[in-house]
Amino acid sequence: MERKEEYLKSLPFWERLSEEERILAANSSSITEYKKGSIIPGGGSSCAGMLLMISGEIRAYLLSEEGREITLFRLYTNDTCVLSASCVISQITFDTHMTAERDSAVLTIGSSVFSKLAEQNIYVRCFMYELLTSRFSSVMWTMQQILFKGFDRRLASFLVSEYERTGLKQIKMTHEQIAQHISSAREVVARMLKRFAADGLVESRRGCITLKDIDKLKELI
């Protein structure tokens, strides 16, 4: 219980909850660990509630009838998400799916309790809609990238963003994983990385991309 309350206290609305609401939230929350590649419950037609990332990385995506995936956004340590609470938020009319990209730990507040908190506490409700606005902004940015930006610029943008996020010039991902992140096909990623390598921008080895000229990659964006 102490560990759960430690993470719950980091939520922006925690100080605005009554003692009764805090007890309710703590009793309905749970911490779950997911291995890399695991499907996170709450995507599709199910409903998990509100998620708080403790560690790891989760990818949220849309899945077409043909099996094509479009990555919407990724969640890292301390990120929160309510797109998994479609039964709480009636405005969510599409199914999102979530997969653990690395071993991850997630705290979840159950959907029924989170719904009750949002109904009776204005601070929880404001948090929920502000978070939705932020997530949909990320989704719109993703759609703009797919619709209006050339693939070379999309790939360069992804590589640079990974470098800026981690501070490492080595990106330990397969071509398939990169393709999932930028909503493309593995073969297309492989061809473009081959071109980048010929231009001296990257060095591509099995499961690892080394950035050789970050400045020139930035010029492509």
Question: What's the topology here?
Answer:
Elements: H1 2-8, H2 19-28, E1 29-34, E2 49-55, E3 58-63, E4 69-75, E5 80-81, E6 97-100, E7 104-110, H3 111-120, H4 122-148, H5 151-166, E8 170-171, H6 175-181, H7 186-198, E9 202-205, E10 208-211, H8 214-220
Description:
The chain folds into two domains: 145 residues, Sandwich (Jelly Rolls); 72 residues, Orthogonal Bundle (Arc Repressor Mutant, subunit A), CATH 1.10.10. The protein is built from eight helices and ten strands. A hairpin with a 2-residue loop joins strand 9 and strand 10. Helix 3 packs across helix 4. The protein starts with a helix and ends with a helix.
State Rg: 19 Å
pLDDT < 50 runs, ≥5 residues: none
Q: What form results from the Cα inertia axes?
A: elongated
CATH class of the largest domain: Mainly Beta
- Counting DSSP E segments of at least 2 residues, the number of strands comes to 10
Count of helix runs: 8
Overall structural class, as computed from helix and strand content, comes to alpha+beta
- Which band does the percent of strand residues land in? 15-25%
Summarize the structure.
This protein is 44% helix and 22% strand.
